[in-house]
Design brief:
This protein is mainly beta. Helix content is 7%, strand content 55%. The protein is built from 1 helix and 14 strands; from the N terminus they run H-E-E-E-E-E-E-E-E-E-E-E-E-E-E.
């Protein structure tokens, strides 16, 4: 069964709201000294929560993206076969804030380096024509995460049983993706190719994340995680500009990413 990006995003938003409600009901257990309590004359140690007095952080990330199933249509009529979105690479960074015991949020910008999108046109009997173009993307997202600090195990009386150096998390983000397609080739006759034009466009984008943070020291965390990224539809230029033919449309451009990053916290 194929789920749409909007249905997945809706399900995650509902999940985050439910988790927040559970946390508010203290179903994860209480702690003797609440470091977020306004009644405290000073912040108590955040060791059990892995935050250590911090309120803000900056981050730097790198990722490898693996394209999932994509559908390419030519001129809104002809579906291509053997559609492929090659492995892509990205770097990025951002600034964020700790919003409570378990929640944090950040604003991030990523640059996705050029990668190939290709397929085969088989609309005509016994004729197979190749199509290929490149895309690079500037991605901006506002993200919200839930860190699973302070999970209590059976029989634990004081503090969490999970080590405070390793913290699982889930998250979601929304924003925009600014795409630029860089030329490309359309095979008009066997062995003959026409150059596609460049196109830029901006789409709504969203992301779903899960991973773990490893506390290196009080200020530094290593983040290793997975991100599903949906960057909307994408159109190429035409390989026949005279008649306006040969435009390719990628429906629901999405990618699965393995991400590694560093987060530096400060007060």
């Amino acid at each position: 069964m194929k789920y749409s990006g909007k249905s997945i995003l809706g399900a995650v938003i509902v999940t985050l709201v439910a988790v927040n409600s559970l946390a508010a009901a203290d179903l994860f257990g209480s702690h003797k000294a609440d470091p977020w309590s306004k009644s405290q004359s000073r912040l108590t140690s955040f060791d059990d929560y892995g935050v250590d007095y911090a309120r803000w952080y900056v981050r730097l990330d790198g990722a490898a993206g693996f394209g999932s199933d994509i559908d390419i249509i030519e001129d809104d009529i002809y579906p291509l076969v053997n559609d492929d979105f090659e492995t892509s690479w990205s770097v990025g960074g951002g600034i964020g804030a700790y919003l409570g015991k378990n929640f944090r949020g950040d604003l991030t910008i990523d640059w996705r380096f050029e990668s190939d999108i290709s397929g085969l046109q088989t609309a005509w009997p016994e004729v197979v024509e190749s199509r290929e173009f490149q895309v690079e993307t500037l991605l901006a997202l506002a993200n919200l995460y839930y860190d699973f600090h302070g999970i209590r195990g059976g029989g634990a009386k004081d503090g969490p049983t999970m080590t405070n150096r390793i913290t699982p998390y889930i998250g979601a983000g929304i924003g925009f993706a600014h795409h630029r397609t860089d030329g490309g080739l359309g095979e008009t006759l066997p062995g003959q190719f026409s150059q596609m034009g460049d196109v830029t466009e901006t789409n709504f984008a969203f992301a779903l994340m899960a991973g773990v943070n490893w506390k290196i020291n009080d200020a530094m965390h290593l983040d290793v995680g997975y991100r599903y990224l949906d960057m909307g539809d994408l159109e190429s230029g035409h390989w026949d500009n005279t008649m306006g033919l040969g435009q390719l449309e990628v429906e629901d451009l999405n990618v699965h990413e393995i991400r590694i990053g560093l987060r530096h916290s400060f007060r």
